[in-house]
Amino acid sequence: LRPGGNDRIYICKSMVHSSTITGEILVALSTGAQLIALNPKVLPAAHRRRIQQYRPTFLCLPPALLYFFNRIASYESFQSLHTVHVSGSIPSRSALRQFHVKFPWIRLLNGYGLSEMSPRVSYSDSSDGVKPGSGGKAIEGVEIEVRNEFGNLCPTGEIGEIYVRSAAQMSGYLTTGKLPWAPEALSWIATGDL
After folding, report:
1. Rounded to an integer, what distance in angstroms lies between the CA atom of residue 163 and that of residue 15?
2. Could you tell me how far CA 1 lies from the centroid of its own chain?
3. I want to staple 56 with a disulfide (CB 3.0 to 4.6 A). Which of 8, 41, 101, 130 is the partner?
4. Segment 163-178, tens digit of pLDDT
């Protein structure tokens, strides 16, 4: 996300989600950005009022709120924003286009990840020309492969399962002590996502 010390990050997501803790709260703390972290379980209109009141520069939200904001937000409510970060799932292409048309000055990021990867894997960034609906490009230090049902790499355009690996991946599950993959260093993790 790369916020600076003058940025204000408003989080509309659950505080117990790994992406919120490591991907937003720790980012704010490590960069000196202000963090606006209120109870996220409110109606979308309340989030809009909070955004107008606190004037954040970064907004972190789930796709469902992106859909609501496409309908209820205005220039006045979003004029302080320069970056919106969406995570939880990939928003529809039409929702991404609609947001970009309505708020063209806002950089729109969609993050893909999983808790086992601490949690970021890739980003789709509207300023990079990444096609809407894409999971984006791997972040630094993360490798991604797409494999078919036999474990072979898929050619471009073929649907397969996403495999990832990184030095940031977890070492095992606390409750069982077992690894979801082979114990050798940096083994590939089968995400279960297509």
Report:
1. 27
2. 10
3. 8
4. 999 988 887 766 766 6
* Upper half-sphere CA count for residue 134 (Cβ side, 13 Å): 15
Query: Who contacts 110 (Cβ-Cβ below 8 Å, separation ≥6)?
Result: 85, 86, 87, 90, 91, 96, 123, 124, 135, 136
Give the CA angle between residues 164, 167, 168 to the nearest 5°: 85
SS (H, E, C) 64-117: HHHHHHHHHCCHHHHCCCCEEEEECCCCCHHHHHHHHHHCCCCEEEEEEECHHH
Q: With cut-offs at 50, 70 and 90, classify the pLDDT of residue 106.
A: very high
* Eight-class DSSP state of 21: I
**% of the chain with per-residue pLDDT over 90:** 41
The H or E element that residue 18 is part of is helix 18-20
**Cα–Cα distance between 191 and 24 in angstroms, integer?**
22
Q: Which residues contact 17 (CB under 8 A, 6 or more apart)?
A: 88
Cβ-proximal residues to 104 (8 Å cutoff; 6+ apart), any chain: none
**What's the whole-model pTM score?**
0.82
- pLDDT band at residue 132, thresholds of 50, 70 and 90? low
